[in-house]
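[stage:ingest] chain + small molecule (iron/sulfur cluster)
[stage:ingest] validated
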Amino acid sequence: MTTVAPNRASETDTSFRSSEIRIRAGMPICQTDLPLDWYQEEFKVYAEEYLALRDRTPETVLPWMDRYIQPALDHFGDSLLLLAHYYMGGEIVKLVERYGGTIADSYVLALQAVRNPQSKTIVESAVHFMAESIAILAHPDQAVYITNPKAGCTMEMLAKEWMVEPLFDELRDRFGDDLLVVTYMNTSGRLKALSGLTGGATCTSSNARIIVDWALKQGKKVLFLPDEHLGDNVAGQLGIGPQGVYRLPGGQSAMHFRVDALSSNERDQLDGAQMLLFGSYCGVHMVFRPEHVEYWRALGYRVLVHPECRREVVEAADGAGSTAYLWREMLGTPSGGKLAIATEGHFVRNAKEQAAMRGVEVVNLADVPGADGSFGCGCATMSRNDPPHLVALLDLLRRGNAPAINRVLPGDNVDERTGWRERLDASSRSEIARLARLALEKMIELTESAGG
Ligand code: SF4
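[stage:predict] done
[stage:export] tokens:
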């Protein structure tokens, strides 16, 4: 049983019922075409039709999509739920909403199965960890699908179970039950299960401070997985100084971490730290620098950043928060306002488009003219979901032929290059789901009681 109260809206989710992004005649509804060989075999026939369309305007693309999607909507009715994340390209955000779907941040996405028990088929256009979190919390009669199984998160790819487990075992041997794992949402179910195993919780960028504060108040040492920068920013918010934070390796280097290979000074630091930060990161958020903040602020822009940015960027900014926070701030800026936003490029492009309709100017914080090598970029892995992926999956679901590779189950280990997934046997899967669900439910309980 989940602890979620279905009709109780938290502070986090109230602002994300609709993106308010509109489709207008003649606009370029789809920005980039993927090459045909990037589609899985079953989807190629749909991709060929799409790539042969004469242009990417709504007038051309929508009739083609309607031909497949409308029969699927009629077939499934209320039992179909379409979801997408705000970091998706503008086209998927617009299209998913057009077909009655919901756009949200990762916290709200995770709650969707549990809040919509009538939805038996859930189709997500975003990355794997988001779909898996929905699947972990889903009721047994709900099935979760992802439109592109190759859509992964590079931060999560630097914290695969086989990279993290040896390090976790070392730390658990040293600290025993004093070690509590807080997993950022951007992790596999297998890592979330480590939180459940140690009595910890999952967190998102909107509630990380609440979760870590709760963990520290129990007198525990927090292993924060996997984003070093979000963990560092939370440490700063909680007034934890440099001695209270220990930086661990990330990626494959983490597998070689050995406590007995540390110097005595390093061991003392490890033993004395309140937070142990795993060394993964999001490349998209690493491009932002304090000088970008100075540049745009000098031109009268208010600077808003995501807490996956480095601490010096967050501390220099006027505000920092999750995608929900950034979107809400943009919608709340009066006409004539100017915002420089540091987060994923598609989000900023969507915000720019939406803000322009309200007389507000939005720029990408990294787009500083003449700056050496700086540019704001999109999440390339998330953008692997596009209109043909949505069309193909919905049509194949209606026909009863959805490929097994698009089904998402708790504990799946995905190879993001091929889309192949290693699937656990039923009993291992059920144990991973149980532990990961404990971590997600603890997050929901703490978040709802703090701000709901
Ligand atoms: S923007 Fe970064 S953290 Fe978010 S899904 Fe993409 S790679 Fe992962």
